[in-house]
Structures are given as structure tokens and as C-alpha cells.
Prior knowledge:
CATH class of the largest domain: Alpha Beta
Radius of gyration: 35 Å
Strand content: 15-25%
CATH topology of the largest domain: Nucleotidyltransferase, domain 5
Low-confidence stretches: none
Number of helices: 19
Oligomer: single chain
Number of domains: 5
Number of strands: 20
Mean pLDDT: 83
Shape: extended
Helix content: 40-55%
Amino acid sequence: MAPNSPGLYIFKNKLDYPIYIGKAKDLRNRILSYFSSDDLKASKIISQAKSLEIITLQNEQEALILEADLVKFHHPKYNVQLKDDKHFPYIRIDTSDPWPLPEIVRKIAKDDAVYFGPYIKPGSMRKTLTVARKIFKYRSCKGKIPPQACLDYYIELCSAPCINNISKQAYHQQITKLIKFLSGDIDDLIKSTQKDMEKYADQQDFEKAAQLRDQLVDLKNSIVGQRKLFNDGVDRDIMGFSVLKRRACCFIMQIREGRLTGSFPLYLEVPENTDRGEIVERFIIDYYRSHLPPREILLRSKPDNYAVISDWLKQRYKYRVTIKKAHRVTPKQLLFEMEKNAAKKLIPTKKIISPILYELAGVLRISTIPELIYIFDISHTHFEDVKGSQVAFKNARTYKKLYRQYNLKSKQDDLASIRETVARCAKDMTSDQKEKHHLPQPDLMLIDGGFQQLIAAKSSLQKYGLKIPVFALAKRFEQIYNEQGKIISLPKYSPVLLFLRKIRDEAHRYGITQHRKARDKKISQTQFTSIPGVGEKTARLLRKKFKSLQNLKKAEVEDIADIPGLGRKSAEKIFNWLKNSQ
Length: 582
């Protein structure tokens, strides 16, 4: 029986794989609660669990950390999991460096460096660094300082410690100001810069005063557009949650030094009937394992284990993080906005379908809007190297992911070629979805040809039990054949006709381009097989390495001998033959 102590419990299925990993202050009481609970999720876990593993630990914090590690490793079916496990960039400054400089990193190391972030938009972060560089003129050269000044010094972006243009003390003072700037403590920085500017002006050091004046302008410009929401200067994240079926969204508002610095959504995979408190708790743990927390996290309600989570964050990041319920008017209003945003993100967006597809469906009199269209074309060289091409359009745009070209066995028979091409496509459509070559079924198929070609295509679909509308685009292009052999005539400048012409032209372009590539490859291969003693396999390897016969002629014996399975003797024969044939 489980002990009355902290730890983890792991429910496993018949394959001995974890389906749910949980932590508890009292393992015995927690596990027994599953057998007496009316909760639907608990009932499902018990019905599917075939074994139970127990891990006893020293305290709740150890359980919290191990649970997070195991959930991330095993991805159990009934655990809440952060879907967007992104590592946003940070700015790192190692103040122990003799000449510190900011660098961009993706992970927070356990060191004494100062970190700023996370920056949700890397472009915004780089813009911040560009402004900071202009104001504080820190070095950009990593590692050891070079013995001479670079271009940055001459364009006034660096104070040039490399040529002793600035003392170590003065440089560190600039870095201290930079840290204040990146912390968001810009108001104090503006006040101190204003004070220094006035001091140098009183001392009639107008050059220094002018430099500080320019800094002051840049500092003031850097906060233009940032809303100041709080006057207390506290860093905080406001988190609004929303749950819909098996998905949850947390919309985070980042406030640094009282100013809004960004807001963004993150998503979680949530088993049905999961308690909201568990979702909030799991998100906070997963998110702040890899992201620097603010001093304060505001929520609609605190999770049950908020004190344990707060202690864990303090131990991990060496400062106190308070998890609070939003009470005051402003935080409650902002939280409400985040919850609204989170709810909107979970509502499926209605797809905007191209209007031309509605017109096309009306002209062809088909019941389904043809969002996905396949068109087939046959190409050959004097009825040799016959190839069938398939081009796809999704929502009226080319969808090259589903382009295909088939090498056909059918020769000198256009109907047989169409029949084989559509059959190959139908085979891929009816294959297992996990197969690499699987194709989705289109809403409409078009054949470049007449009614006989349409019948040939339809017979291949029927063979595989597929019911997909098929139409043929006649050579006299204003005419379209339906499956009954009737002709649909369209005005010369009809939008639907122009769209169908666009589809047909793309099919021709793709078919001809791919056919030429294959033909050129064959010609190139033939050049290699013309060399005495070189078969198809060696020719392929030679072509792959040297691309052309001209390149092979320029090669040395050692280069040719590198071909797998060729050997030095054969390489010398090829080399000598090429040399004598020039």
C-alpha cells in the first residue's frame, strides 16, 4: 500500500506505458481518491490502468520537478502538456567579463550573468539592441579584444576599448546603464542622463553635454508607443486561460517596469474533463522551466500548489516570484482582456474560400465547392518516355506538395496512358494515410483531352471504388465535357474559363518541364554509358558525382577512383579513354 508521504504515482496501461503521472503531498490519500471519485477523467484512468508505480520523495518540490520531467519525457495520455514548447530568445550580459557585451541566447544557463527577456518577437529584440548600441556604444567583437579599432568606432557605435579610448571603469558604467535600459528602468535613466547633461553644460564641457543630449533623445524615443499600465515599476505576467474540448490557450501579457512589452498566446493539449487548476499549474511549471519569470504572476485564481511552485521558482532563479489572484481594477480588466483573447484563439477560424471556386461549382453543377483540384496531362517524345503528370490546385492556388509525375508503361496509346496515370493516383489515394506516397482525395478531377479520355479516367476511379467528379477540357478550349458526354460551353472571357485555362497551362508547364529534365538526364546518362566498360550503375554514380561528361574529362584518376566499387584499375581505363577521345 502507498505511504502517507510526498511523491509520484504513475498509472500504466497493459503495455506498461504511463497513461497518467501525478504528484501528491500524501500518496496514500491521493491514490485512494481515484477509486471513490465521480470524476470522469479519474474513472477513465482507473478503467485503462493495469498497474501502478509509486515513487516516494523528500518533499513536494522534488515531486513537482520530477513530475514535470517525466511528463515531458513520456507524454502520458491523460496529462496536460504544453504544445508550444518554444525557447524564446534572451539577451545575456556577463558582468564578470572585463569588457562585457550583450549576446543573444535561447536558454538560461546556471551562471552569474544577467538575462533579459523572453523576447517573443526577435525583430523587436534586435531593434532594442540597435537603439542600445547607439546610446551605450558597447563593443560587438566577441572574445579577445583586437589590437586595432574597427569600423564601428568610426561610425560612433563603439567606444573602442581596443585602442584605450575608454577606461574600464567608464565602460562598466555604460554597461550598468545598459542593464537599466534593458530592465525597463528608463525613467530613472532619463532623469540621471538629464542631470549629467546639465552638469557638463555648467562645466562648459559642451561636447560631452551634446553627447548626453543625443542619448537623452534616443532614450525618450525608445519608450514611445509603450503603454504604461502600472506606476509601481514591478515586472509581472498576466495570464488569461481558456479551454475548449481538448485544447487550452494561455494568453500572456508581459509587463516590465510597469510598461506593456508584449502579449502572445501559447497552447496546451488537454485531456477531456481536466480540472482548470491542473491546467494552470502545469502551464506555469512547463513555461517557467525554460523562461525567466517576472516578480509577479497574476491569475484569476491561484492553483492549489502555488506556494510549492513559488518556492521552486525562488530556488531555481534566486529571487522571489509571487503568484497572486488579480484583485485591483486595472489587473482584473487586463486579465479579462487576456481571457477574451485566449477564447478567440480557440475558436476555429472560418476558411475564406476563393470566389472563383463557387462560380466553378455552379458552372459544372457539382454539389461540393472544389477546394482541391487535380488535373492530369500526358507528355512524350514521339511516343517514347511517356509520362503522366498530376498538378494540384488548393483554394484556387497551385499546391506543389501534391504534384506528381508517373513513368508510364503504356506506349502509343493516349487513352491507356490516362487510364494508367489516374489509376496510379487512385492507388495512392486509397493507400494508408501514414504512407509517404498517400494522396488526399480531390473535390474535382480535370483531364486534358476529350470525352474518351474522361471515360478512361473514370474507369480507373471506379476500379478503386472512388466517386470523384471528372470533367475533360477539350482541345477546343471553350468546351468542357461532363461525365454524360454533354458539352458545357463558356464565353471566351468568362472568369471560370480563364481560371481553367490557368490550371491547364500549369499542367502543361509542369509536364513539359519534368519531361525535359528526365530526357536530359537520360541523354547525360547515355554519354557516360558510351565509355567502354561503364554500365548503367557506374554511369549513374559518375553522373551523380561529376554532373556532366565535360567535368569528368577534367577529373584526375584519384577523383574517378573514389566512385564506390570502381577501383583504381577501372578508373585508369576511364581516364585514358577520355584523354584519347578528346
